Amino acid sequence: MGTSEAIVSATSLDFFQGTRFVRIRAASGKTTRPDMEKLGTDLSTLLSGTGNLPGETEILRIPGLVDGSIVFHRRAILGYEVLAPGYEAKVAVPGTAGTLILITPEDAGPAPQFLRKLSGSLPGFVRVGKEMARADLPSGTLWLISREGFHLGVAGKMTREKASAVLSIVAGRLSRFLEQPEREITKKE
Asked: What are the structural domains, with CATH classification, of the chain?
């Protein structure tokens, strides 16, 4: 935890430190929030690096981002292993709420192969025009675009137009991120 923004409850704790995303889950119903905070603080002292979020998470910092909602998922995003590893964040603006996803080139590989993999694994997956794909998930429609090897998505109960507007903002953030000469995509351990 150190300088990291942490998400904590009596049974879970998530935080970033250096190149690591730490996720702790308690199996005991007797665990308390202070217990989890102490465990996180103790573990944090053993890890190198700061608690700053990885640089690529700046791509998700759009208007309406729910504070503290950016998490890294190694195994599944939106309940689907095919979408992981990657980042997920909640967004809520008047008339629109959903989940943003960001999958880096390091984690997805080449876009055509990644999209073929998704087409065989996500329900209702179809290409929509040249640049967008969608899938019909239980939580709502997932809308995806690929840019420079990154896969950007938004999921929820929203129209293509609303999803396009959100993804346009995220794609703009990606462009600014890619223009930074000192940028570095975090290598996850």
From this structure: 7-46 (no CATH), 55-179 (3.40.1000.20)
Predicted confidence (pLDDT) per residue in 43-100, tens digit:
888 887 776 778 899 999 999 999 888 888 888 899 999 998 999 999 998 878 999 9
> What is the reported pTM?
0.75
Q: Which residue has the tokens 């909640």?
A: 90
Tens-digit pLDDT profile for residues 46-60? 887 776 778 899 999
The separation between CA 183 and the C-alpha centre of its own chain, rounded to angstroms, equals 18
- The maximal CA–CA distance of the chain, rounded, in angstroms, is 52
Sheet holding 12-17, edge to edge: 7-8, 12-17, 20-25
Q: What percent of the chain shows pLDDT beyond 90?
A: 46
Quick one: pLDDT at residue 130? 87
Count of all residues that appear for the chain in the document: 189
